[in-house]
């Protein structure tokens, strides 16, 4: 029995200030198929190196982690990897070239943060500079403070993709603060050596990040002589998880949280492991059942090339690769990346979050697939054309660099988190649009041990933050959290989709995608998105009104 | 300007299964005065060792930490030191000799606990055996689980002094579990080397302890196939703080908490630093204002002996010491210990918690002081006679071993916690019964650095757990906590004394002392104590009823 597994990258910050073309190329490899797990293990046993020249063991293992099922019969453990860290060095070089633009100017500051909040060993007292961005244009002392709880990447990227906070700052006369997550962006506790080993990476986890936020916010308020200011935290995706957890763990520091597209139930099989890929598949099926079927059967067609004479050369031609493909699975990965991410960012307006895309890009992809049937295109030509929408909306790409990217050493940031605490089991049933695979925890664990020398703690997140029976637990505990989700986003299936109490609210939009509500408002925004944001503003206003009222009495 | 400071020991577990005489002797030294801080620093500078033969530097510093003001004019930083760790080795030897008796038999188990929950460094994966005690006599699968969140000492001691849980187990058909706190009792992560240095002690703190409880409870429920059981946590004193914090941080694991005599507001000057000693003083003043005055003026009388010809010999005679006193301050410490602890355990019935004492021992002490006036006794003879109630209720002690105890190396357990996270500022104003002293954070910090090589984090507990404006923060957040306090107990001043919400309840008894409600019921219990326990049972019943009702819907 062969076991195979896959890591889907969670892209967000990956595209941060990279040229989109570069970013898309880099992302191509995130789902690049290297081999099945058994093959990998055999190679490891036999001391054989990956076919790629100059590929280190760690790198090889990374590729194994991001490998996905090819001729899958059984067994996969899937987590998501944002890929933020992957681009740290590139981003650093790019910083001067492409400075992000914000709706309001942000001042950059650095806070001396303690390395380990939960230990008092001498080492734990070490400090590092944690970056944060701040705008006080509308604020007055005692007024609300809106904090973005940074996720897995440069904080500028999240600030520039959270226009909602800028939009509502004047109304609330709010101080805006965007705090970078430790081990990402410039907030590297050990500088260039931060990713060196488990010894340094050990301090990278969500609990330390939350404590960072707590310490920084408290210090900031004190320095601003504004200890009585109400603080509301905002976050999207992993940042949304952090925002929700921050309100739950630090209610004395944060009055409330807007947790957008926060899959806090994606752990420990609280939601079915199939939910993510089922949701991607459903997006495409809803757009067109023919489209869904074409994509679904394309995998087998592609696999056929691996045994075909000169199969890779033929496939390379169909996929217009710049250089010949090294494996069929790299092309499969390239396609799946496009479909998964397009589902995530299936926004109602033209946007450039993951990649520049038109409004409702899943519809557009399916129109390409369905429309090309009449022109007699093969299934593979049709899925390639659809994926080209994602990789080449501008039409400027002459060829695609599929599976040739080798600079993968920087991905260990989220890769590390996925291999330790952020263990999100995933699988793909026969009903899903991709090749079926099952969970393979054992294989996943072995791989993490090989990569980092430490084992995952698959039950830790739910032990520390809960999740099981959340509707019962929080029915009579906690308050002031908005869980917003757009059902187009496959991560929504791991989110809180029903109101839990009168103040732990689920705002669900059928047509919404990955934290669409956090994006800056545009004239093209549909009514449901406007209404969602209106509700969020009203709820936050209620929290703040209550806070000031409580403070007076 | 001389700066002086003091650490009051928090005795609880210190007496655990030690003969009371031994324990009282050991505790004498906890407030043994060594020197003023400046004197200490001078000695340290000059490389001079303490006068005591064979006393190590660390030991010397420990004594400095526990030193209290003698000719105080200014400056002290006071924290409480439970002294649990102090007796670890002795307790270990005593274990077979004096096995504690429980109202129900308890099975001893050991859980493989992870060393560091909040780091993923390779070292953090190390495991140790965490001890817990369990009784399932009344329990059935799915029924309630009552957990005692162990404090700073052997878990048997807390179990045997928490008869309330045994008393109510039949009514609730509850599983009883008493979990030992890491680094105390047998739950030593590095065995005999656990107290070796900050490198090992670094893992001793409240957040790691709470996470231990979470992991252990979750695992236990899984092993018992009883994941749906409601868990209620109980704790007294530091254990009460842990119980309250556990409910706040792990609501998904614990349905509610009975936090008895939990001074969660004793940090960061939330309550005035004078509150503790003011409360002790008030206990004595309420018993008799003459008694209060006699005690208050006795310190100056005692100080006079330090400049008197053969003063120590004369004072030794008055205090019936077995060997001559080494300093006046050791006698002062011996007295203060008696007064502080008697105030804490000013129970309405005869009890043997800190020491065997009659009902309402503060009253009895004051009766001794007031009554002896008629017999022409001096002030010092009167306060000595009062303190003898505490040290010699049985009357079997022929002499007292004041200030000669040298085995202080084991106190670093709570001493460590007090020097890192559990920083409780205290001072004594002119109005209090003891010699006045002020806070001296700088001196305290220097001392901790000298002792352990690490600095205290004085704002960490309130950053992690809150405390400031608690009534506002928890008004709309959290639920199901009982804060019970007896106003005779000086720690009550750092407790939650008013209802915060409909389910975060303060039960305050005017005549109650240090977690009196957790003690086993006796026929002599006064009505107010019975009523307090009745209310606690009713509230816990309501939580459990709601839990099962919620689970059904």
What does this structure look like?
Chain A is α/β, with parallel strands linked by helices and 553 residues long. In chain A, 40% of the residues lie in helices and 11% in strands. The first copy, chain A, has 20 helices and 12 strands. In chain A, strands 3-4-6-5-7-8-11-12 form an 8-stranded mixed β-sheet, sandwiched between helices. In chain A, strands 1-2 form a two-stranded parallel sheet. In chain A, helix 11 (289-304) packs across helix 15 (379-391) and helix 14 (361-373) packs antiparallel against helix 15 (379-391). Chains A and B meet through helix 7, helix 8, helix 18, helix 19 and helix 20 of A and helix 7, helix 8, helix 18, helix 19 and helix 20 of B.
The radius of gyration of chain A is: 23 Å
Largest sheet of chain A: 8 strands, mixed
Looking at how many chains there are and whether they match, the oligomeric state comes to: homodimer
Major β-sheet strand ordering of chain A:
3-4-6-5-7-8-11-12
Proportion of helical residues of chain A: 40-55%
Please render the helix and strand layout as text.
The structure is a homodimer of 553-residue chains.
Chain A: E1 6-9, H1 20-28, H2 37-46, H3 57-66, E2 78-81, H4 88-94, E3 107-114, E4 127-135, E5 145-149, H5 155-160, H6 163-172, E6 175-179, H7 198-201, H8 206-223, E7 231-236, H9 238-249, E8 256-260, H10 275-287, H11 289-304, H12 311-318, H13 328-344, E9 351-352, E10 356-357, H14 361-373, H15 379-391, H16 412-420, H17 441-452, H18 460-465, H19 470-473, E11 481-486, E12 504-509, H20 527-552
Parallel strand pairs in A: 1-2, 5-6, 5-7, 7-8, 8-11, 11-12
Antiparallel strand pairs in A: 3-4, 4-6, 9-10
Helix pairs in contact in A: 3-17, 10-11, 10-13, 11-14, 11-15, 13-15, 14-15
């Amino acid at each position: 029995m062969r076991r195979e597994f896959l890591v889907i990258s969670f892209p967000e910050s990956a595209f941060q200030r990279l040229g989109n073309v570069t970013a898309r190329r880099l992302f191509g490899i995130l789902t690049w198929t290297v081999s099945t797990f058994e093959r990998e293990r055999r190679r490891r046993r036999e001391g054989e190196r990956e076919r790629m020249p100059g590929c280190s063991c760690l790198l090889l293992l990374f590729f194994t982690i991001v490998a996905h099922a090819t001729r899958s019969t059984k067994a996969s453990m899937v987590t998501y990897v944002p890929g933020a860290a992957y681009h740290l060095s590139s981003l650093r070089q790019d910083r001067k070239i492409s400075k992000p633009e914000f709706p309001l100017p942000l001042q950059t500051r650095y806070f001396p943060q303690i390395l380990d909040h939960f230990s008092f060993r001498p080492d734990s007292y070490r400090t590092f500079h944690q970056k944060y961005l701040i705008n006080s244009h509308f604020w007055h002392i005692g007024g609300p403070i809106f904090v973005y709880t940074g996720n897995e990447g440069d904080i500028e990227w999240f600030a520039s993709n959270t226009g909602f906070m800028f939009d509502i700052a004047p109304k609330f006369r709010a101080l805006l603060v965007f705090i970078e997550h430790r081990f990402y962006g410039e907030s590297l506790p050990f500088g260039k050596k931060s990713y060196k080993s488990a010894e340094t990476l050990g301090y990278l986890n969500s609990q330390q990040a939350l404590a960072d936020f707590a310490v920084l916010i408290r210090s900031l308020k004190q320095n601003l002589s504004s200890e009585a200011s109400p603080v509301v935290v905002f976050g999207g995706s992993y940042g949304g998880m952090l925002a929700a957890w921050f309100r739950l763990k630090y209610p004395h520091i944060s009055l409330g949280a807007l947790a957008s597209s926060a899959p806090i139930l994606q752990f420990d099989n609280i939601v079915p492991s199939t939910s993510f890929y089922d949701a991607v598949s459903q997006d495409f099926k809803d757009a067109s059942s023919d489209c869904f079927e074409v994509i679904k059967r394309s995998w087998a067609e592609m696999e056929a090339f691996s045994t075909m004479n000169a199969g890779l050369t033929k496939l390379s031609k169909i996929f217009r690769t710049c250089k010949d493909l090294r494996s069929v699975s790299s092309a499969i990965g390239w396609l799946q990346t496009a479909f998964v991410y397009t589902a995530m960012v299936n926004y109602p307006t033209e946007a450039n979050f993951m990649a520049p895309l038109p409004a409702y890009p899943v519809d557009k992809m399916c129109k390409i697939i369905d429309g090309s049937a009449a022109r007699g295109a093969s299934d593979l030509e049709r899925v390639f054309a659809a994926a080209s929408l994602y990789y080449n909306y501008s039409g400027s790409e002459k060829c695609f660099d599929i599976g040739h990217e080798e600079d993968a050493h920087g991905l260990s940031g989220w890769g590390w988190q996925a291999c330790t605490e952020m263990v999100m089991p995933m699988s793909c049933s026969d009903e899903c649009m991709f090749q079926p695979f099952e969970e393979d925890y054992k294989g996943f664990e072995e791989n993490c041990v090989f990569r980092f020398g430490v084992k995952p703690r698959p039950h830790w997140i739910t032990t520390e933050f809960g999740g099981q029976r959340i509707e019962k637990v929080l029915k009579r505990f906690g308050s002031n959290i908005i869980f917003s989700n757009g059902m187009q986003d496959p991560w929504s299936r791991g989110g809180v989709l029903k109101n839990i109490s009168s103040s732990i609210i689920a705002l669900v939009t059928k047509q919404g995608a990955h934290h669409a509500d956090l994006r800056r408002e545009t004239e093209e925004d549909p009514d449901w998105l406007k209404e969602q944001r209106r509700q969020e503003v009203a709820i936050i206003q209620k929290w703040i009104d209550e806070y000031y009222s409580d403070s007076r009495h």
